[in-house]
């Protein structure tokens, strides 16, 4: 390449960058990435059970009544934190299904033995594909799926005590 | 009245900056020595008036003058005195005022240090410096006036973000700004060097002390920021690859590369065009970092007030300064002959390799920081680029760099033999082998990455130490060896605290205990406590190791009064060079408290290493400043060095 051109290159690159940055000014920021799947039916899937629980398939979610689907993992600390709240939701009559992502059956079993098992069905998703199917940006996340298998609500992050009534209300709304 | 004086002083300072920019430029062009000589008095006036403006704003904060809008929005009468003072720069307008203050003081320093390249060059540099300052004065006065009044004045202010009410914050921004602005001097030297066609060994010798000082201050600022994030945010980490952190890291990387390439220009008169580009890039990245932080262009944990109009102003400033400098570069760098070629095995070729590696790290960080924004603009897809990307890409480069850093200083300039290398590097090789074995066997570290980290730290550390112990150590060599040793110590801290860390997240009742390896933690008590402008729930957590005295950690969950906001204050205690670190979470409703507990061996070494790097830089700078000292002093200073040799 011509030497003159090489010396011009930094200026050209900078000009491109500057135009690009100026064009992006003032765009609203979204700090939280919401799932695009809210309002859409759950993609078809069938997962094997884990820790003695029956497996989970898309058909289990279209059972006529709204359910909570909790995406969790034994390696995820906030998942341990929200365990009492999941139990509280179950005690108040909610149906919970779990999806264990990127995990091994032994570790999931040990996790549930330690923190309690509020789930009716648990799907073992060792590849983590369900994160994409639900549009999750991490674990834990909890979804309200209505009786027809349509995702109605996404809860990002751990469920704290103050979130329990919120989720119960979302379940009621999806009825 | 006093805020008006400050406002007026700011306008006068801007006028002085205008004079400083224009008079020498016209003087040099028209060969008018009278006009050219105005540069120094203009720099003095700019320095004095800016200091006056800064003092006026400080006064408004200290006496809580809530008729000043900025004070009302960012301060509170209940705030402790110290944070009323640091609150001056804990906001957009005040921090910009600090920026121009540091810049004006740098101008003063240029005016009063001996002009080793002649007064013509000094005046040229001052005019560039004045031009850059002028833009920031315009930004302050037209788009972010810190002295704006409120009428009627509120009786109470809105308070300062509690996360910022911390001693760490008192010094983090001023140090970073001093570093950025120090790089603006290197920028001015580069532009001046191109305009005056003076780029060469003498130019490099004159530029390097500024870069050294700026680099040392940036190192301190970044280390302090990392330490602040570590203990204040309560996430247990010390570096998060957040865009704002990267914004400070990138100028530091460019400055590091610049420091090393300047040596090549000094000693061998090679790499001129590349060095000029780095000098321009270092300050450009500082400006861009400030822009990224201030404009809200990127999503970050650092929530600053977002204002697109201000962002546009900064874009225009960057277009003028960076665009201008790169245009001069495209036109003038061709005149700068590339200097001499060099042999493959030589000090300079290792420095070139080091420059390439640092630039590669810089490029990788740059891409990772801007890629999410680019992707969203191009396809509308939102992604975030996080630690997995940065760690996987930068760490191998860093390892390669560490390997070379130990070798380079043992090589000669021009063309080096390699026969002596094996003997010189034997201690380093032995130390690396011992560290890897000790980590792998008694400590049970697995994972090639961790083991390489231990090895690299020992390799570089031993090589740097043996450099210090050699005969005829000058201040410059000692500074370099200490800075390299600092890098090794930081790597050791980062590796050990990562590889040997233990972590537990538990829900405890008062009286409950949890085992964490050889450690046992017991929750003694949870009780309310109060401070000047906050109340808190404080846990007392006794952590013990068998056969040792225990430490009581006191993590808090704080509720600040104004603004009403909760923060977590980590509870920490030292353990040798490591730390026990606890964060108190929420109660679970049945009398149990969430406690997040870490044992982080050697974690403090990360920041000690940073301090040592900065100290090494300052020591080498001391060696340079000696050149300015009168002869009598110089002889006195030289004597102990002879004694050591």
Largest sheet: spatial strand order of chain A:
5-4-3-6-7
Overall, the morphology of chain A is: elongated
Order of helices and strands of chain B: HHHHHHHHHHHHHHHHHEEEEEEEEEEHH
Overall average pLDDT of chain A: 86
Helix and strand arrangement:
The complex is a heterodimer of chains A (175) and B (645).
Chain A: H1 3-23, E1 46-47, E2 56-57, H2 58-61, E3 67-72, H3 77-81, H4 83-91, E4 96-101, H5 105-115, E5 121-125, H6 129-134, E6 141-145, E7 151-156, H7 163-173
Parallel strand pairs in A: 3-4, 4-5
Antiparallel strand pairs in A: 1-2, 3-6, 6-7
Helix pairs in contact in A: 4-7
Chain B: H1 2-30, H2 33-36, H3 39-62, H4 69-74, H5 81-86, H6 92-112, H7 119-143, H8 167-196, H9 201-232, H10 243-268, H11 272-295, H12 308-332, H13 347-379, H14 387-407, H15 421-440, H16 448-468, H17 475-499, E1 502-508, E2 513-516, E3 519-530, E4 534-545, E5 551-553, E6 556-560, E7 565-569, E8 571-575, E9 578-587, E10 593-600, H18 604-625, H19 631-644
Antiparallel strand pairs in B: 1-10, 2-3, 3-4, 4-5, 4-6, 6-7, 8-9, 9-10
Helix pairs in contact in B: 1-3, 1-7, 3-6, 6-7, 6-8, 7-8, 7-12, 8-9, 8-11, 9-10, 9-18, 10-11, 10-13, 11-12, 13-14, 14-16, 15-16, 16-17, 17-18
Report on the architecture of this protein:
The complex is a heterodimer of chains A (175) and B (645). With 175 residues, chain A is of the alpha/beta class. Helix content of chain A is 38%, strand content 18%. Chain A has a single domain (46-173), classed as Glutaredoxin (3-Layer(aba) Sandwich), CATH 3.40.30. Chain A is built from seven helices and seven strands. Chain A has a five-stranded mixed sheet with strand order 5-4-3-6-7. The termini of chain A are far apart. The mean pLDDT of chain A is 86. Chain B is of the alpha+beta class and 645 residues long. Chain B has 19 helices and ten strands. Chain B has helices at 2-30, 33-36, 39-62, 69-74, 81-86, 92-112, 119-143, 167-196, 201-232, 243-268, 272-295, 308-332, 347-379, 387-407, 421-440, 448-468, 475-499, 604-625, 631-644, and strands at residues 502-508, 513-516, 519-530, 534-545, 551-553, 556-560, 565-569, 571-575, 578-587, 593-600. In chain B, the strands form two sheets. In chain B, strands 2, 3, 4, 5, 6 and 7 form a six-stranded antiparallel sheet that branches. A four-stranded antiparallel sheet of chain B has the order 1-10-9-8. Chain B is globular, with a radius of gyration of 26 Å. Residues 300-305 and 638-645 of chain B have low confidence and may be disordered. The A-B interface holds A 3-4, 7-8, 10-11, 14-15, 17-18, 20-26, 29-31, 33, 77, 80-81, 84, 160-161 and B 273, 277, 280-281, 284, 291, 295-297, 299, 306, 308, 311-312, 315, 318-319, 322-323, 326-327, 329-330, 333-334, 370, 373-374, 377, 382, 384, 505, 507, 585-586, 588-590, 594, 596.
